[in-house]
Design a protein that fits this description.
It is a single chain. The chain has a two-stranded parallel ribbon with strand order 1-2. Helix content is 69%, strand content 1%. It contains 17 helices and 2 strands. It has a domain at 224-393.
Length: 393
């Protein structure tokens, strides 16, 4: 066995050991999963799932499905057992994601690099540490991508519908397939989504669904989570840091109106440019599947979805790993490849920077936007490489 594979295997063992220790033995370990578990217990006890928007540490801000899946397990297994099961599931999801992507790679050198990337991508450590759902979503995105490339559109739609009911923003990938006029994916996503909706209504009631979509989601969409604004790398986080003063942030100007206006202007710019480059193949063109262009477009939609979301914490960044992989799959000149790795480094080590930042110490908005710079830079690289790919066809 080549030395590089032995090194990668050893690094994976270190990664598994370190994230397991962080999740199970440290003070902030399992932070998000504890929230899932707490609300699943409340749901099982017949209490209301949504207590309001940002009223306490245990606020549940997701669609009901995740809590409903966990709820029947809470009287059988204790928090520690369920936390470990969730942790193992997240590790499996990460490993399967890399496995699926590598099945589409012919170059052996890239395969070992892609096995290395997840364990040097620091957001994966943060996500595993707090027990976020990001690894499950990462596998959903990779699974839907792999299924589509292997001519299984109905499975693609079903997976994306499940992902959407877990955390809403994957709906942009369903919209992407609608834009491509791929009705098999769209119909499958709609039918699966309606089945999952019916299951959720049967378990709780329709009022729970309407509360989420008409109270919780609008609250998040309009203002994000202000208490953690300093670590938000979405478009909302960037523009709000620029124009809203908090105990952590020194803005350019303290003006809420400018914060909202700049947010939507930047959103329109990002979404508009992205839509302009997305393909809409006709029936005749669908037989000529462009593998490279699809990879870049799929990654671009994931990127735009994360930038458009009201919050983008470090723990929510693991899906960016797919975007990096899809770009590095392309034939890039050394300059572009170097820029991709620069963005990867900024996004990756941004978490270490946040650990060094003490909450309560005000810093300029420019300094606190480092994460956004990395993600936005990746979006610009994706746009440029996609445009270059289109022009070469």
């Amino acid at each position: 066995m080549k030395l590089k594979y032995i090194v990668v295997a050893a690094l994976w063992m270190f990664f598994i050991a370190s994230v397991t220790y962080l999740a199970m033995q440290t003070i902030n370990g399992r932070w998000d999963f504890i929230t899932y578990h707490y609300n699943a217990e409340r749901l099982y006890a017949g209490e209301t799932l949504y207590s309001g928007y940002q009223t306490n540490r245990y606020d549940y801000i997701y669609p009901p499905l995740l809590a409903q899946v966990i709820a029947p397990l809470t009287p059988i297994f204790d928090l520690d057992a369920l936390s470990m099961a969730w942790h193992i599931l997240s590790l499996i999801c990460l490993g399967l994601t890399v496995f699926l992507v590598n099945k589409e790679i012919d170059n052996a050198r890239r395969r070992w690099v892609f096995w290395l990337m997840p364990i040097i991508f620091i957001p994966n450590y943060q996500s595993m540490w707090v027990g976020q759902i990001s690894m499950v979503l990462l596998l959903c995105f990779a699974g839907a991508w792999y299924a589509y490339k292997h001519d299984r559109p109905y499975l693609t739609g079903a997976i994306l519908a499940l992902a959407t009911w877990l955390k809403v923003y994957p709906i942009f990938l369903i919209i992407y397939f609608m834009w491509r006029r791929d009705w098999k994916v769209t119909i499958s996503a709609f039918i699966t989504g309606m089945i999952l909706l019916g299951i959720q209504v049967l378990i709780t009631d329709f009022d729970t669904i309407t509360t989420y979509f008409f109270e919780i989601l609008p609250g998040l969409s309009n203002n994000g989570q202000i208490t953690g604004l300093f670590k938000n790398s979405s478009i909302l986080g960037f523009t709000f840091k620029m124009f809203i003063e908090t105990p952590d942030i020194i803005p350019l100007i303290d003006n809420l109106t400018l914060a909202h206006i700049s947010r939507w202007l930047l959103t329109v710019l990002v979404v508009g440019i992205s839509i302009f480059l997305l393909s809409r193949p006709t029936s005749a063109q669908k037989s000529e599947f462009d593998d490279s262009r699809f990879d870049l477009e799929y990654g671009l939609v994931i990127l735009v979805s994360l930038l458009f979301a009201s919050t983008l914490w470090v723990s929510g960044m693991p899906p960016l790993l797919l975007c990096y992989m899809f770009i590095l799959k392309q034939r890039l000149n050394p300059r572009f490849r170097s820029l991709v790795w620069v963005s990867f480094s900024i996004v990756s080590f941004y978490f270490l920077y946040l650990l060094a930042f003490q909450v309560g110490n005000q810093l300029p908005w420019t300094v606190l936007s480092i994460g956004f710079y990395g993600v936005f830079g990746l979006w610009m690289l994706n746009i440029w490489i996609l445009r270059k790919t289109i022009r070469e066809r």
